[in-house]
Amino acid sequence: MGQRRGAGFLLPLVTMMSAAVLTMGDRNASAQAPQTARPPDIYFAATRQPVVDAMLQLAAVTAADVVYDLGSGDGRIVILAAQKYGASGVGIEIDPKLVQTSRQIATDGGVDQRVRFIEGDLFQADLSMATVVMLYLSASINESLEPKLRRELKPGARIVSHQFPIGGWKPDQVVRAVDGTDLMLWVIPAR
Question: pTM to 2 decimals?
Answer without folding.
Answer: 0.80
